[in-house]
Fold these 3 entries.
Entry 1:
Amino acid sequence: MDKIKKWIPSFFLLPLCIYLCLHRGEYTLIDNADLVIHEAGHLFFFIFGHFIYTAGGTLMQMLLPSLIIWYFFRNSYRFGTQVSLLWLGQNLINISVYAADAQAQKLPLLGGDHVYHDWAYMLGALNMLPYDAYVSDFFFGLAIIVFILLVIVCPLIFVE
């Protein structure tokens, strides 16, 4: 019975992972928190220059969930690790949507016409703007890997 019990969180989290992948780019309630974290990242990284300041929103969207994953993992709390991985994967999907919009710039931005598109600026500065779809696919692929970790790997590595 204990061998089955450790898979119960994965059973309930897998449909959420699938939902997030199939509804990529659709607004969810957690996006409000993610937006605040993204904007806080710009403030946090402003001292490192314009490029890192711009990347700071995306960096914070990955850094904060990763720190929480590390905390739960270090304290052997499997379910907390899994939920935090779900959050990281969801953020990676959001990042993939934002990166995919770098050329088109159709997404509404906080601040309207008075702000610039983070990914358009970053990819433009790196002469990679024509490759925004590939960058987007990279982040979406990372999200899928994170979801695999939370659904399959977590129950295997945590010892009850």
Note: The longest helix spans residues 132-157.
Entry 2:
Amino acid sequence: MTRAATGVCPNPAASVMGVKRPSSALLTDHYELTMVASALRSGVAHRRAVFEVFARRLPPNRAYGVVAGIDRVLDAVSRFRFDEDTIRYLLDVGIVQDGEMVEWLRAYAFRGDITGYAEGELFFPYSPVLTVTGTFAECVVLETVMLSVLNHDCAVASAAARMADAAGGRLLIEGGSRRTDPESAVAAARAGFVGGFDTTSNLEAGRRHGIPTGGTTAHAFVLAHGSEEAAFEAQRATLGVGSTYLVDTFDVMEGIRRAVDVVGSDIGAIRIDSGQLEEDSRAARNLLDSLGATDCRIVVSSDLDEFKVAQLEAADAPIDAYLVGTSLVTGSGHPTAQLVYKLVSIADSDAPDAELRAVGKLSPGKRTLGGRKDVHRTVDADGRFTGEILSVLPVELQDDTMNPQVPLVRDGEIVADLTDPTEARQRCNERRSRLRDADRTPWPTHSPAIPTIWEGVEEPLSTPVPAAGGAQ
């Protein structure tokens, strides 16, 4: 579908104008600071440590997850500072005590390293999506803000990719801003674009990230006029014949007749937002063709998700574009990517060259394997993924394996440029092409799509345990 047909406006601005961003230091949980205070007292605060972000399991019947939000994580880390107003608040309410802890807060800046999966990369159980290295204290305080961003953005990107897989190349429009918090809406639009959506209704996402935006009229516009004809005439005069006309305010077929009568047979597109979408789209196609509007596109909406899109595609419904809102911005039933942030290694002294000791939880259903993980993926002769190899000790790998980890931060400085989501979108599409076709559906044959292969370490117990909320 053309941009004219959907009201899409490309916006080249890929970043917000130079405005000083506020501190992200209080986008965290109370216990992060009490841990730091206790670690300063016990002596472990300044010991070298390694934390990893990973999911023990994917949501039920999901074949893969999609990484998104890395740009927001790096931005949050760069703004994680405790200014005097913030410190005064923490003192006034008794969260911290004056002395060593306050001096630590004043001096805080993350000076460690972060390695992670690139945006648009796929992840599977135990994939080290992020590896954070530094002192225990400087790393542990980043847990909440990192997980807050990644669990939201990865959930949305994963849902978007499933919808893109189901849509078979049809145009996908994101329209969920009214179903989530305003800032979450911007993040969701970007994550949806990374996952495979083509446009968004969110103008701030267009301004910040250069994502194409689109939108024409809603039912209120039609109802505000004396008749559908009057509404269509006003839209035609303003937006042109190539825009998308909403035809289901009263009666879909009558709406189509009126739209074609007012706009002409070169009408760009119609949108159906209710009813039986398969039957209505077929009837709409037949009617449009009989009226000479053979090039008119059909856009559908109305509480779509990947399952409904797949059903419409399987039925070969004559639909050209799907507009998805609520299901996308809420992760299509799984609003969190189930990512956790866990300590996997720590030194036994403050010495810079002290050896790191692997540590991990043994809790039933929440086991954590200690040690920093290296990761490589194996591929077959057709370039399809066959497995993800995780290892703690060096292992001999085949020449054709790939490593999804990339450097993001070195010595506290961001070394990755992730401001353009287009590259991440392309990566996501390419990585999904390496999966079996049968796993790129809402009903995959494998969950996860490829196995996690542990080299030189005991495989963790993988029996699924239902999530019950709260701390993980």
Note: Confidence is low (pLDDT under 50) at residues 1-19, 463-472.
Entry 3:
Amino acid sequence: MKDIKEFIIKAKQNTYAGKNNQAESSRDGSIDYEYCEGDYKYRDSYVGSKYFSGQEIVWVKGKPYWSMNYVGKVFGEPFSGDFLKDALKKCTIETPYRGPALYEDGDYTYLCNVEGNFEWFEGRELIFFKNKQIYELKFHGGILD
């Protein structure tokens, strides 16, 4: 299980959060990122901007293995996509879903709460600017069988 979690962290750091590996759109209007290493393949595909929805999938040897769905919205300014990406690059082996439980930089604060485990989980992340909430995302997912 550690190998797949390490791969997910590496994939996240090398796709959306790292501003790398944008892939061909898999659906009308989607923005996709893909990362492959050995037997593992990761794809993040989302639609929307201020209000958005997406899905991350990991395949092992061509078979879907793990998935996470998310939906979010930006409802305040000044939202910083770079701050969000910095937070996402700091996910941990214990919680490789989004970012850490707490990340702060200047006037921005990122919070992420997760219930469950890698096999079956749900969570929510928030961003505040000067203690005013400006962003929210809900996510859930787990192992595929």
Note: The CA atoms of residues 49 and 57 lie 20 Å apart.
